[in-house]
Amino acid sequence: xxxxxxxxxxxxxxxxxxxxxxxxxxxxxxxxxxxxxxxxxxxxxxxxxxxxxxxxxxxxxxxxxxxxxxxxxxxxxxxxxxxxxxxxxxxxxxxxxxxxxxxxxxxxxxxxxxxxxxxxxxxxxxxxxxxxxxxxxxxxxxxxxxxxxxxxxxxxxxxxxxxxxxxxxxxxxxxxxxxxxxxxxxxxxxxxxxxxxxxxxxxxxxxxxxxxxxxxxxxxx
Length: 221
Hints:
Blueprint: E1 11-12, E2 15-16, H1 17-28, E3 33-38, H2 43-51, E4 59-64, H3 69-79, E5 87-90, H4 100-113, E6 115-121, E7 126-129, E8 135-139, E9 145-154, H5 155-168, H6 175-180, E10 187-190, H7 201-216
Parallel strand pairs: 3-4, 6-10
Antiparallel strand pairs: 1-2, 5-9, 6-9, 7-8
Helix pairs in contact: 3-5
């Protein structure tokens, strides 16, 4: 973002983005435990700004993350008290518009198939380029999906995939890739184009527009 405040703590409708995201999980009633993985230097501020005052029946932990996203997820999985056959969802803290419906669908799919990811079908024409920037081919759009989170897994499966990647020095772009490289199947759960990841200042402007639109919808405050 280029500012002094890290993305998860930027305000969205007057409330930190991460708190907006967390509230979807705590209010869903779907989870036995919720683990927030944050920078070690932000654990106190996360508790004060995000976790304090949150009403939830889930066990809520805040733990220190690692040097990158993959290591942070690995540490979060290690901190879980779940058993190998339990289901875990992994979600980006800066995707505050995930719905309870999507969370539920991911839990069901992960329970049934062992691994799933939320995604939306590609709607733009997709081009593959070579190292020189020239187009090599046009990809078939009907077979391409744009990955989102949450991504859901049997806990034992995703823990093993992360351990293997860690031992072999492999860095993936998301968690499902770590399962794919071991030959595991990952099922698509249809997500929403509203489930944006807030990465740039333009994303935050769009998120504010979505938030204000949602607040004006019938039955919303």
